[in-house]
Amino acid sequence: MRLRIYVILLSLFSLLTACTDLANIDKTFAGVYNWGCKSNQEKMASLADWDQAITVTETIKDEVYQSGVLTLKVGLPHIIQITNLDNEIRSFKAPDLFKASSVLRVVHEGDEVEAPCLQAVAIPLQQTSEIQLVPLKKGYYNYRETYITVPVLNLLPIIVPVSSIGFAHVY
Description:
By secondary structure, the protein is of the alpha+beta class. 17% of the residues lie in helices and 37% in strands. A hairpin with a 2-residue loop joins strand 1 and strand 2 (64-65).
């Protein structure tokens, strides 16, 4: 009986991951809507002085974040540049950081896309993407590289560590 329930739940989660897999999302902007953000959250980012923005960088190589730590200051505009050195699409998923920030836009290959309720960004192979945001709340937030094709495993990051993890310290 337990095995049957496990198989049913596993099948259900597999179907759900097909809806959230980055392969099914528009390649120019791979943001997944973040249901935890507030409707007026982008206002702070639109009022920020972007000429004074602080640029922080992260690189993905061999499916691993190379620095693993981003340091951001509350209330100041930041441009997070993520470079993908791999030969396949990688992602930057940080829903808690984005929920605690005012996200202005994502820049992919020169295309600017407004993304106030961002959850994840897919970075094309051998390219750099930018996320422009203003952190609103102090804390420690993790980010993940979650572009995997194995169903269900991306729903179980604590049980099955299948992605590279980094931390953003907002002070």
